[in-house]
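Expect chain and fold; see below:
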Amino acid sequence: MISVAEAWAQIAAQKISLGTERINIADAAGRVLAESVSAERDQPPFDRVTMDGIAVRNASQTRFGVAGTQFAGDAPLTLEDGGMAIEIMTGAALPAGANTVIPVERYTRNGDTITLEDGYAANTGQFVHRQGSDHVAATTLLEPGLRLGGPETAVLASAGLATVAVSRLPRVHIVATGNELVAAGNPIADHEVRLSNGPAMSVMLAAAGYRGAQAHHLPDSPEVLRERVGALLDAADVIVLSGGVSKGKADYVPDVLADLGVTRHFHRVAQRPGKPIWFGTGPSGQLVFGLPGNPVSTLACCRRYVVPALALASGERTAPPKQLALGADWQFGAPLAAFVPVVLEMGDAGLVATPLSTNTSGDFTALAGTDGFVELPADREHFAAGEHYPFFGWTERSS
């Protein structure tokens, strides 16, 4: 067996290129940016008024005449007389000749005369967002590798981009194996179990930004596996199999993958759950994961290895996993790294990860409501509350 760190290093060493595509920015949520984005013009592009009120030139004056009204989107007026004011709305361009904005709450208007409230002292330049104070034209605003969300999309639009280059979504095929599996909605016998790993991994990948994974269910048949997985290799960047990778008589996946020309890089990692995990690369460089079929093992391995592998292939810039303090003592005697489900809670010293027991690696219902898992090292047996360990959130993208 190899260590968790060695397993990830071998996965990370296998480079696949997904290419790029150009999409409408309205469809860019969760996609990985594949181009640099520069400012179209100064931001703000003009001296921008930030309060409804009046625009004036003499901040020390207390009474003004009204020279006009200007709304956001209007071409700026000109304030020619220092004794006058222009009524102004938030977002408008500061009128030429004005340098200060006085909020509407600070004065009263009687006819064409505006009088400031007693004791109010304006500061020259107040409530004016100066042109170029955020950035100037041609400034680089976004770099490739950024996961796009609402704030980033606002930047894209402000740069005048209606479309954007993003990393192509990986073609992922998820294959759940097992004669005992029955999909939800179909009749089920007492000796059968519901197929849950495929839907669970599809949702996990979609939550991480990798939508469109295709899910399949195949029986424990070498012939069927060889035919169907062989066909999927031609249509996939990544294949994730669940089940059939251990040492039982029906665990055909490793031999089938070898027959299909998939090069094995490792089989078995010193971890729990998920020790029998298998990883290789296909004839065209496809990433092929063989995850143990127990649901907790499948989900933990998918989050620990598959999600960050997709991020790497997409060119996403990711941060190291957060280091969180344990919220309670934990004991683990096996000489293996432990992926322990946790619930995040606020403790006296901040956020803590409180471990949660599961009833074997088949107890996937215990994961509902958990936030992820912490990775505990293999060279320890007792882990004290307050000690910090890497945290992997079920919906978190960091590797």
The first strand starts at residue 20 and ends at 24.
